[in-house]
Amino acid sequence: MAADLSQIVKAYDVRGVVPDQWDETLAELFGAAFARVTGATAVVTGHDMRPSSPALSGAFARGAAAQGVDVTEIGLCSTDQLYYASGALNLPGAMFTASHNPARYNGIKLCRAGAAPVGQDTGLTEIRELVERWSESGAPEPAAGGPGTITRRDTLDDYAAHLRSLVDLTSVRPLKVVVDAGNGMGGHTVPTVFAGLPLTLVPMYFELDGTFPNHEANPLDPANLVDLQKRVREEGADLGLAFDGDADRCFVVDERGEPVSPSAITALVASRELARNGGKGTIIHNLITSWSVPEVVRENGGTPARTRVGHSFIKAEMARSGAIFGGEHSAHYYFRDFWNADTGMLAALHVLAALGGQQGTLSALVAQYDRYSGSGEINSTVDDQVARLAAIRAAYEGREGITLDELDGLTVTSADWWFNVRPSNTEPLLRLNAEARDEATMTKIRDEALALIRSS
Predict the structure, then answer these.
(1) Sign (positive/negative) of CA torsion 76, 77, 82, 88?
(2) Mean pLDDT over each residue of the chain, to the nearest integer
(3) Does 49 score more than 90 pLDDT?
(4) Domain Alpha-D-phosphohexomutase alpha/beta/alpha, which positions (predicted)?
(5) How many CA atoms lie within 13 A of 386 on its CB side?
């Protein structure tokens, strides 16, 4: 019987519980299907620290090699290190990780040569169909010319050197930085990337442990920042950094232990990337980032471009527009000079360079980039996403001074506030983000929107 992959092949990646939903047998078929769909003669693979990752990655390599493809295994790495390898070696890549998901999960993030994304519309659907077919009929025929080779290659030093070539760190003053790696891949990459910089590094949870014994490696959840916030205050540190499990996202905490909005980080990095590019360039931001972002971009000579939420949309728009940088409120940061791929590590280096290049505190530095009051993302379980969105539209449509747009869900905007409500693709949820010029207005608008979303 054919495997049902509908539960594990998502819009942008493969992800599910091991071995209940997928295992090494299916991983081998994914390797063969990836080889067929990309038509590649060589691919690169990497994996995170989860207990199941080495075996799944190895099975994928065998499946690809059986199709005549040469496989370069870079072993333990962060997701952005795999993107680096895909870009620098100009090879399609496969990263074995389930990012911030619990220990029993694993997954694959796939890309074409040059770190170009693979999603449902760009090859993932065809890969899924092949794996389903082969799981019923048996493994595909091996390549007529014989199997490809499987070789090991260490890319950590080259990855670190590339990142540091993209940020001027020469004038950084001595800083004390606490880094919470959450037992994820930041514990592997941070020591090499930060080596030689004038930093006093206070490491937290750097031991690679895919069972996540200290807290979930998901800094988007405020509960997982508590340890870092406390340690920053105890150490009298200049800042704190928190990475997610596969270390492609970075969250920043200021010297008071207060989280810095990812929108403020987007605005800060945008201003620096524009300066590096002569005050010209397009900057991508998704529609739930703060009003601060397009304002700062325009003030620094750039052109802001608003997109839907999600890395495939941002990467596609980066490629289409030639944008120099893009940021999401989920703390994904995309760089043209990093093959349009996301790297939280490069964003972290920008923050260190900006803070270390002047004498003030981080809270004072980012205040100019954090101008409004935001709600953060609030999820509500609903029976009927479409009906709830229609009710919100009806409540605001025709009101004077209010505009509506449906780029991604429904965005309602006035002169002093905006909110966006968008449906989850995978759960019966509506996600609300609201922002206003002051806290009282934001609270009022947030509560108005929530009442409409949650009314039965």
Answers:
(1) negative
(2) 96
(3) yes
(4) 7-135, 157-257, 264-372
(5) 0
pTM of this prediction? 0.96
- Give per-residue pLDDT as tens, 279-293: 999 999 999 999 999
- Based on the fold, state whether residues 110 and 163 are members of the same structural domain: no
Q: Which residues contact 369 (CB under 8 A, 6 or more apart)?
A: 263, 264, 265, 267, 268, 271, 292, 296
| Pairwise CA distance, residues 300 & 279, whole Å | 6
Please tell me which residue in 52, 57, 78, 99 is annotated as part of the active site. 99
Shared-domain flag, residues 332 and 378: no
What's the CATH number where 67 sits? 3.40.120.10
Q: Catalytic site residue 99?
A: yes
Instruction: Name the amino acid, one letter, at 254.
Output: D
| Nearest residue to 382 (alpha-carbon basis) of 422, 411, 413 | 422
Residue 2 has pLDDT above 90, yes or no: no
The domain tally of the chain equals 4
Q: How far apart are CA 283 and CA 277, in angstroms?
A: 12
Q: Assess if residue 80 is contained within a domain.
A: yes
Is residue 6 assigned to a domain?
no
Q: What is the pLDDT of residues 77-121, one digit of tens each?
A: 999 999 999 999 999 999 999 998 999 999 999 999 999 999 989
The residues near 396 (Cβ < 8 Å, ≥ 6 apart) are 402, 404, 412
Q: What range does the domain containing 235 cover?
A: 157-258
DSSP secondary structure letter of residue 209: -
Residues 148 and 166 in one domain: no
Whether residue 80 is found in the same domain as residue 121: yes
